[in-house]
Amino acid sequence: MRRVVLTGGIATGKSYVLDRFAALGVPTTDADQLAHAAQAPDGPAWQALRDRFGAGMFDDQGLLDRPKLGALVFADKTARAALNAIVHPHVRVAITRWFVDLEAAGAPPLGIVAIPLFYESPRTQAFHRVIVTACHDETQLARVVARGLTEDEAGQRIRAQIPTPEKVRRADYTIWTDGTHAETDRQVAEILRKLRVALADRQETGARRQETGD
User: Fold this and answer.
1) Looking at residue 121, what is its pLDDT?
2) pLDDT tens by residue, 148-164
3) Residue of 79, 92, 90, 97 whose CA lies nearest to 38
4) Of 61, 82, 107, which one is at a domain's C-terminal end?
5) Does position 206 have pLDDT exceeding 90, yes or no?
6) Phi-psi category of residue 148: left, alpha or beta, with phi > 0 → left and psi -120 to 50 → alpha
7) 56 lies in the same domain as 10
8) Which candidate, 10, 87, 185, 186, has a CA 20 to 30 Å from the CA of 42?
9) Residue where a domain stops, chosen among 63, 83, 107
């Protein structure tokens, strides 16, 4: 199973791009959704979050108040580090399990997981390729503000992550999302083509080695 990461800054189009890969038949999952499951009342991170951030961070049903917690952690590096230290290990376990289950089920030999903080977090898992979604600064700021935040709040969230140019530099592939959906779709399709070609080449090389005994 070839393990591919999709990452990128806040509001750079990760969700849309992940959906496009899924529509093209690629198995996908999202670390944010796995984190939400870990933070749920029956999730493995719930009690540690309650112990660290207090009962006031939860509603009467025991659900985490995400906007309230977000306001805290983006203003406080120590709180943000504590949140990540509690939740990320459980997310990593869930991602590993997802890939293992795909392979056991005989799924297509390529899976993509969206990990928003891939470059910002310690990495203990091996991935074969990294795709970064990117857009220009003014586009990113406008998109974050459109989510209901002030410009100061939006800037705070953007600055809490590694800058887009650095993520682009580290990536194997970049998808620019400033343009139309059709333009983004074309980039997704082209990258998927390249991933499949690389996978086919690897399988062919492996077959030749088996034939020669190397």
Assistant:
1) 86
2) 999 999 999 999 999 99
3) 90
4) 107
5) no
6) left
7) no
8) 10
9) 107
